[in-house]
Amino acid sequence: MMKNDAHTLLFSELAEIARTLGHAHRLMLLEHIAQGERPVERLADLTGLTIANTSQHLQLLRRAGFVETRREGKRVLYRLGNGPIETVLASLRAYAEHTRAEIRDLVSDPINSNGRLDSISREDLLERLAAGSVTLLDVRSSEEYALGHLPGALNIPADELEQRLTELPSSHEIVAYCRGPYCVLSTTAAEMLEARGFRVRRLASGFPDWKAADLQVEQAAA
């Protein structure tokens, strides 16, 4: 095979991978599967797609190696495939954030609300956790929390937070996190807590990025 032919084959493979990822619904499914393995019915519910449409996208992702399956009784559960898939997703998010920063001001970015809230990087959070000076607040659903969460995180779903404020320590700064930079749950939660006098920041990334960095993850006891 000629050298140019080998290069063409390589880039053709890369283009095929890009085509597989080049659909919003497939990226949404991968983001949800990155939280933990789930059956097609639950993935359809989370993404707002029909079961048939969800299955079609999942089969494409499976053929490309992005997801794998295992059977549990009558259910087929989907999980991420082998390889640095979470890193690929994190890189896509990072590039999107770079693009967003160049085309709009942070203050007008609805993902970051009104720009008042401080965020904390993963590296800074690790230092604060080692010092024992922050409380981690996971505002995802209890289902997602059970599938995997940051070590020592307290789980209060965003829609229950206002009724459970007494469970939060007032002496520690709180760091809220959710599914990632495009998930607004942590922003909404942090705004509400700040309005009630808590010292709070939001994690700039989210749970999938934490896993992609090969950091420790805990699961709820069965």
Automatic annotation (TrEMBL):
<keyword id="KW-0238">DNA-binding</keyword>
<dbReference type="GO" id="GO:0003700">
    <property type="term" value="F:DNA-binding transcription factor activity"/>
</dbReference>
<dbReference type="InterPro" id="IPR050229">
    <property type="entry name" value="GlpE_sulfurtransferase"/>
</dbReference>
<dbReference type="InterPro" id="IPR036873">
    <property type="entry name" value="Rhodanese-like_dom_sf"/>
</dbReference>
<feature type="domain" description="Rhodanese">
    <location>
        <begin position="130"/>
        <end position="219"/>
    </location>
</feature>
<dbReference type="InterPro" id="IPR036388">
    <property type="entry name" value="WH-like_DNA-bd_sf"/>
</dbReference>
<dbReference type="Pfam" id="PF12840">
    <property type="entry name" value="HTH_20"/>
</dbReference>
<dbReference type="InterPro" id="IPR036390">
    <property type="entry name" value="WH_DNA-bd_sf"/>
</dbReference>
<dbReference type="InterPro" id="IPR011991">
    <property type="entry name" value="ArsR-like_HTH"/>
</dbReference>
<protein>
    <submittedName>
        <fullName>Rhodanese-related sulfurtransferase/DNA-binding transcriptional ArsR family regulator</fullName>
    </submittedName>
</protein>
<dbReference type="InterPro" id="IPR001763">
    <property type="entry name" value="Rhodanese-like_dom"/>
</dbReference>
<dbReference type="InterPro" id="IPR001845">
    <property type="entry name" value="HTH_ArsR_DNA-bd_dom"/>
</dbReference>
<feature type="domain" description="HTH arsR-type">
    <location>
        <begin position="6"/>
        <end position="100"/>
    </location>
</feature>
<dbReference type="GO" id="GO:0004792">
    <property type="term" value="F:thiosulfate-cyanide sulfurtransferase activity"/>
</dbReference>
<dbReference type="GO" id="GO:0003677">
    <property type="term" value="F:DNA binding"/>
</dbReference>
<dbReference type="InterPro" id="IPR001307">
    <property type="entry name" value="Thiosulphate_STrfase_CS"/>
</dbReference>
<keyword id="KW-0808">Transferase</keyword>
<dbReference type="Pfam" id="PF00581">
    <property type="entry name" value="Rhodanese"/>
</dbReference>
